[in-house]
Amino acid sequence: MVEGKTVDESSVIMARLMQPADANPSGNVHGGVIMKMVDEAGGVCAIRHARQRCVTVAMDYMSFRAPVYIGDLVTVTARITYVGHSSMEVEAIVEAENVRTGQKTHTSTCYLIYVALDEQSKPTAVPPLIIRTPEEQRRWDAAAERRTHRPPRD
Q1: Per-position DSSP letters for 18-65, written without gaps between them
Q2: Distance (Å, whole) CA 143 – CA 49
């Protein structure tokens, strides 16, 4: 039996200063730039949990609650919320910080599904998730509920 891992063992925080190349002529950062950061952080989180190659299977709905501008420091915090046999749900929280004023704004939260793959690119088992806090249990329960509403995979 594979030994379980805690949420903290695989959590990831990635940050990047937004540059002119990341934005439109008005200075608003493209949503795709932020989505790529989310997928990178989520992917690293999944790989750290599984210690296997992982691929993105799905991203739940993502909305942008506030704009992100050139010069903002964007931070993505990713953590495992649910583990199946070979799949993992990762919660990604995006925050933009105006580094001159220090004001931080929560801009997005979304959930991504990753599957761990073996050397033959077949889904492979991942370690169970060790739940240690009531908040982690709440996230697990919410993830289990979201899972029931996702379309089945072919």
Answers
A1: --GGGB-TTSBBPHHHHHHHHHHHHHHHHHHHHSSEEEEEEE-----S
A2: 17
Q: Tokens representing 127?
A: 């370690």
Total number of domains constituting the chain: 1
Cβ atoms 39, 56 nearer than 8 A: yes
36-52 tens-digit pLDDT = 999 999 999 999 999 99
Question: What distance in Å separates the CA atoms of residue 142 and residue 138, rounded to the nearest whole number?
Answer: 6
Q: Could you tell me if residue 127 is inside a domain?
A: yes
Residue 85 domain boundaries = 5-143
pLDDT tens column, 110-151: 999 999 999 999 999 999 999 999 999 999 999 999 998 887
pTM for this one?
Answer: 0.93
